[in-house]
Amino acid sequence: MANSSGLNRTGVLSRVTVAAITAALVGTTTAAVAADAPQGATAARSTLSAPSASAASAFAASSAVEHRTLQGVDGQYLYWYKPNGSGGYEGRQYDNSTWGSVKYAQQADNDGDGYADDAWVWYTNGVLGYVASESPSSTFVNVGSGWNAYNKVLSPGSLGGAAAADIIARDASGNLWLYLGYGNGKLATRVKVGTGWNAYGQIAGVGDLSGDGKADIVARDGSGILWLYKGTGDYKKPFAGRVKIGTNWGSYNLLLGVGDLDWDGNSDLLARDTAGRLYRYSGTGNAASPFKQRALIGTSGWNTYRIMF
Questions:
Q1: Which of 26, 141, 238, 239 is within CB 3.0–4.6 Å of 185 for a Cys-Cys bond?
Q2: Contact, 133 vs 117, CB < 8 A?
Q3: What phi and psi, each to the nearest 5 degrees, are found at residue 61?
Q4: pLDDT score at 138
């Protein structure tokens, strides 16, 4: 088992605060590309402070899976948790207090080095932004406005077969849309890839869950049944037909793909229950039974976060 201790890697959210991102939005939202076709948005560079010593990921790089810190937003405050190398997290660390205008966020690994260095940030005003922290001067991209047309926005990895992370978004009618990513924050015009997705209260996943090298997702319906949607690598039809993989998942108010948390080479899933406990479902890489039995990694208090990513 790999061990994350002793490594030192700074994560995206310690390099770029949301305050800086918000500043970059001023005067640009009206010119942003609308949510139905948000390609071609111009990168807006903001003045950024140096990386804070407080923040971030420490991982051994892996080309097969993605590693990331766990981020949590309590009100306007952002905290992060470094993986402890044995399937859990170390104590939380404070990052900043600029997250009050953020509706949701997702991490991404667009350079394929095994680190989640980038982030999609979805604001309450409907603007979607993208932050890339790999370059010496971190870049904010105003992807577009109008994203409040969606009630779910998720980036599970590459769904269209290219190297960059893509986005799926569900609208109020339950239609599912795919936006292919270029790896720099810009997105191709959306493609409708499904209907009836309002049946699911939770949709999650990061990377390959079935062992075939393609990004997959899971979805939990109103009866507490968990379904696996295997990725196909075809952007026109990114998911195969659903397969039932679990029951009694209704006690969870959050499912979250976190990449490889237990360092065994498979992508894992976090689940938070209504009592605020946090569980790890280690991945198996087997489509017929993609998760091992759950392991309790947080005994209480996790419901304090309105956003976890």
A1: 141
A2: yes
A3: -65, 145
A4: 65
Phi-psi category of residue 27: left, alpha or beta, with phi > 0 → left and psi -120 to 50 → alpha: left
d(CA 82, CA 13): 13
- Chain center to CA of 13: 13
| HSE-up of residue 135 (Cα within 13 Å, Cβ side) | 9
Which of 190, 180, 185, 188 has the alpha carbon at shortest distance from 43? 185
- Residue-wise pLDDT tens digits, 34-63: 344 332 222 222 222 222 223 333 333 334
Residues 6+ apart with CB under 8 A from 257: 156, 204, 205, 206, 207, 217, 267, 268, 269, 270
Residue type, 138: S
Local structure of 239: helix, strand or coil: strand
Token duo for residue 233: 């690598």
